[in-house]
Structure formats: structure tokens, C-alpha cells
Amino acid sequence: MKKLRVLVLMHEDLIPPASIEGLSDKEIAPFKAEFDVVAGLEALGHEVRPLGMVDDLGLARRAILQWKPHVAFNLLEEFHGVAIYDHQVVSYLELMRQPYTGCNPRGLMIAHDKALSKKILTYHRIATPRFSVFPFGKRPKRPRRLAFPLLVKSTIEDASWGISQASIVTSHEKLLDRVEFIHHQVRSDAIVEEYIEGRELYVGVMGNQRLQTLPVWEMLFTKMPEDVPHIATAKAKWDEDYQKKHGIETKAAADLPPGVAERIDKLSRRVYRNLSQSGYARLDLRLAPNGRIYVLEANPNPNLEYGEDFAESAHAAGIDYEPLLQRILNLGQRYPAPWRG
């Protein structure tokens, strides 16, 4: 295996220390993904240089021109404090003719616009919850075609930011209140979609032209009351105390009905291609009680933290953590960016 110069792009507040010895899990949590990736790349024998960025692309330009990395490992989730600007950073890397890991600019832009993603999926006759968008600053009016209960969330934010149990609304008054919350607290347009009762499933996909799907993963709510919506709220994803209280865990999906795993595999490949994804992504699905599979959204460049869903599902497929990072590096180097033509 060739030793590579790898420039790891991340937020400057998340540059990990050389060692985490003596640190508590709570202290490690904010930068654990960055630490795991850097440590894993170093264990593979690569020369690794973390680069913290906030709002200055000149840092990347200087590092690229002076150090000449073989590939940039992209862990940035925002730029200038704006989540949807990450695709512009990747566009800049392409303008610099710099190979990088993860999703291409077009795929990032499409995936971050949840309304546009749903329109594309609907065009391709892929089931997704019916929805409506309520632009920032405009008072919402529920379309008659949408039936309660409804789920209200941001059109652009990821990691379940702004999603709580209050996001499920059952009346026009609650709908108005939650849309106002998204507008004024999250500061974005709100997307309102029909709530699909069922199992919360995730599928990892890797590849550019040739794709590999990982085993279907599931979020379980083993202690959550049946009359409470089982949804991936921000607390369900990130609050350990909340997870313990409600028995929330993720693991390989068990006891899927006959033929469902095969249908999910084919569906995931279609979604990945139709949403212009590349590198690696996680697709969020809902399996309804009637067996219908709904695509909720695509998440390019998902969390690569050791022990988290994507890495765990890769491990279940026989890909250990460091080989997973190497595979992502290889995909980044091989991505057919337009400048290569």
C-alpha cells in the first residue's frame, strides 16, 4: 500500500489532541470522530496533517500548494457556520484539482436540500413521505393533501438538529407553533411531511460508479412507550442519558420480512445514484407496517466515528475500521471529477 500525504479538513475547534489518555468520554465526544480518523489514517502508515477551518479558504489553498497532499480527507460539516456551505468547500477543492474523500458538490447540494431531494425521488417513483415547504418568514398554511400527524423539521440541517418529540404535530395550532420554532430557532425554511409509522432503518452505501451497500441497521426504542413516536430526535441520537432511559440503541436489523433486505438493497442503489451521491453516504428509511419502504433522506459523509452506525455496519460486512478508511481514501482518489477529463 502506497504511503499517502493526507490533509484532513475539519473545524478548527475539533482538531484532536495527539493522545486522549486521561480524558473522559464527555471530554472526548466533541472531537472523537476527528481523533478516530486521524489515528486510523496514521495507523495505516499515511502521513497525516489535520487542518482546522472556519471561514478562510486560503488555509486550504496554502496547504495544497505547499504540502501537495495526495488526497484531502473531508470531515467538514459546515463553513462560516453554515451547514449548506460544505458543498462550496468541495467545489473549491475541485477548482484546485485536489482529490478529496466523500461526496461531490452536486450530491452535497441536493442532499442538503430535503425538498429538492424529495422532488427528485418522487420523479423517479421512489416512495417518500408527502410534504410541503414553509419558507422562512412566511406564515404557514397547511395544504389539504397533508394529513395529520405531521413531522416538522428544517429543510437543510442534519444530525436531527431541531427535531424533538414536539416535531410531531397533530393539529393546525401545533403545526403553526412548530414551524415558527424552526423559522426562529433554527433559522431556516421548514419542511412538513407526513409522519410514517414504522421501523427506523439506515443503510450505508459506498462507491462512485460501482456501489456496495452495507447491512441494514436499525434504531430501536426498547423502553419507549408505544404511544410515543419512535423517531430519531436530537436527544435520541446524542444524549446518552436519554438513550439509556428509553433503551435506544442501533444495531443490525433483525427479523426483516422475507424479501425486504433485497428490496432495500436495490432501492438504496437507486436513491444513491438518483441523488448524485459519491464516496459514501447513509440513507434513512422507514419500513411501514404494510411493508412499504419510504426514503426519508440521504446523508452524505456520515459520521465516521469508530463504533458508530456506519463503521459498525461496515464491520458487520467484514470491513474493519482502518480498511474502511483506506477504502474511502481510494474512492476519493478515483472519483472522476470533471477536471480529470
Rg over C-alpha atoms, rounded to the nearest angstrom: 20 Å
Major β-sheet profile: 6 strands, antiparallel
Helix segment tally: 12
Give the tally of β-strands: 13
* Tally of discrete structural domains: 3
Integer average pLDDT: 94
Question: Can you offer a commentary on this structure?
Answer:
It is built from twelve helices and 13 strands. By secondary structure, the chain is α+β, with helices and mostly antiparallel strands. It starts with a strand and ends in a 7-residue tail after the last helix. The chain folds into three domains: 5-102, Rossmann fold (3-Layer(aba) Sandwich), CATH 3.40.50.20; 130-194, 2-Layer Sandwich (Dna Ligase, domain 1); 197-338, 2-Layer Sandwich (D-amino Acid Aminotransferase, Chain A, domain 1). The mean pLDDT is 94. It has helices at 25-28, 32-43, 57-67, 86-95, 105-112, 114-123, 172-186, 234-238, 240-246, 260-274, 309-316, 321-334, and strands at residues 5-11, 47-53, 71-74, 131-134, 150-154, 168-169, 190-194, 199-207, 211-213, 217-221, 248-252, 279-287, 293-300. The longest helix is centred in the middle third of the chain and has 15 residues, at 172-186. It is globular, with a radius of gyration of 20 Å.
